[in-house]
Specification:
Length: about 325
């Protein structure tokens, strides 16, 4: 373990930051492969001097991927997008990008590849996101049969794009729209996901396996919105948004540079996002899942009417 080199693609994002810190503490040397290295320099102090290096890599560019993987013992692919923008397409990132990483990792003789996917991955889904995730999994397994695929539910933590988004929405508009209120989710704490990756990395028992990772509780979308309302102490009206109206709004919102909601995300929301019970989970890796209620109060406090300067009653 100690001193082995791990290349992490997409290591400067929300999940990547936690993973880099986790692996640095475990003694690995880490190469973070990102499109814009200057935006990832904040990661370097998370390890000892020289332990974390930043490399420029674009998963659409073969030479840069080869350079990022060179001499690595392990490779982890965290790259993912929630909406398409310009050259950043679901097909290009989730399928072709994952395929290129797996192909080059195999050629380079990497010991183990971990690929982060999604519980919603499904080649027959109406969602382009879900279809591209499924295509990526297939390409990874084909090129690197011993790869481990981790399918996660919604990931939460201080910098997440889920609870923070809805808390900000409620504060800004003083209402909380509820879309697909009965859909089920099983949010997983980002620290637990990083722990799971640490347990899987280089573990021959995990080679060639697919894990489904979710938290300890299953919630409906409506229950999660209620939690946001309670933890932010905003007590704004929760409005059930009919699906047809939601699609109408998403059609226009999807045209924005950083859309709050897209039609493809709605298609994903229509389906439950929970572990199936047919594949190994966090418990099989010896990781005890952290409840949502134990974490979100610490960072949703910033959205309270009086901010963090007034304790909850």
């Amino acid at each position: 373990m100690s001193g082995e080199l791990v290349t992490i693609f997409g290591g400067s994002g929300f999940i990547g930051k936690t993973l880099v810190q986790h692996l640095a503490k475990a003694g690995y040397r880490i190469r973070v492969a990102v499109r814009q290295p200057n935006n990832a320099l904040f990661l370097k102090p998370l390890g000892e001097l020289g332990q974390i290096q930043i490399a420029q890599a674009n998963i659409r560019n073969r030479l840069s991927v080869e350079a990022a993987i060179k001499n690595a013992d392990y490779v982890i692919n965290l790259v993912g997008i929630l909406y398409e923008s310009g050259s950043q397409t679901f097909e290009g990132v989730h399928h072709k990008g994952a395929e290129l990483i797996a192909e080059i990792a195999a050629i380079a003789g990497v010991k183990h590849l971990i690929h982060l996917s999604s519980i919603g991955a499904d080649k027959d889904s109406s969602s382009k996101y879900a279809r591209s995730k499924a295509a990526g999994e297939e390409a990874v397994i084909k090129n690197f049969p011993n790869a481990t695929i981790l399918r996660s539910s919604v990931v939460f933590g201080p910098d997440d794009g889920f609870f923070n988004k809805f808390a900000a929405l409620a504060k800004m508009f003083q209402i909380l729209p509820v879309v697909c209120g009965d859909s089920k989710m099983q949010p997983i704490y980002v620290g637990d996901l990083a722990s799971a990756m640490g347990k899987v990395l280089g573990n021959s028992n995990a080679y060639g396996k697919i894990y489904e990772l979710g938290g300890p509780e299953v919630y409906s979308m409506r229950e999660l919105m209620k939690l946001v309302n309670e933890e932010t102490q905003q007590n704004v009206p929760m409005i059930n948004l009919p699906l047809k109206l939601a699609y109408f709004k998403a059609f226009f919102l999807g045209m924005l540079p950083n859309p709050m909601l897209t039609m493809d995300q709605l298609r994903m929301l229509e389906k439950d996002n929970i572990v199936s019970g047919e594949l190994p989970t966090l418990s099989d890796l010896g990781v005890t899942p952290t409840p949502v209620e134990a974490v979100i109060p610490k960072y949703l406090i910033q959205y309270r009417p009086t901010g963090q300067f007034k304790a909850a009653h």
